[in-house]
Amino acid sequence: MTSQELQSLIAGGMPCDHIEVSGDGRHWSAVIVSAEFEGKRLIARHQRVYATLGQRMHTDEVHALSMKTHTPAEWAALPR
User: Fold this and answer.
1) What residues contact 12, with CB distance under 8 A and at least 6 apart?
2) Which of 20, 63, 67, 69 is least crowded, fewest Cβ atoms below 10 Å from its Cβ?
3) Would you tell me how many other CB atoms lie within 10 Å of the CB of residue 41?
């Protein structure tokens, strides 16, 4: 799997205002910004992203995914 494929899977499963994915084919890192995260705790945000990947997490197609999840307001407030 490529970073573009993983990014497409996540974006295809939930609305994303911004998404960045990087990794080595097994270990991934993602920054995901979505209005769906409004009012959700960190664990619920991560579960929502995992849901977009379905069986890929259980079959080891995506071995590890580290995430930073933000609402659009949180993302806008981050220093850049």
Assistant:
1) 52
2) 20
3) 9
Distance CA 31, CA 38 (A): 16
**CATH H-level, domain 3-77: superfamily:** BolA-like (3.30.300.90)
Q: What is the pLDDT of residues 68-78, one digit of tens each?
A: 999 999 999 99
What is the pTM (predicted TM-score) of this model?
Answer: 0.92
For 10-58, the pLDDT digits (tens) are: 999 999 999 999 999 888 999 999 999 999 999 999 999 999 998 888 8
Domain boundaries, given as residue ranges, for the chain = 3-77
What is the length of the chain?
80
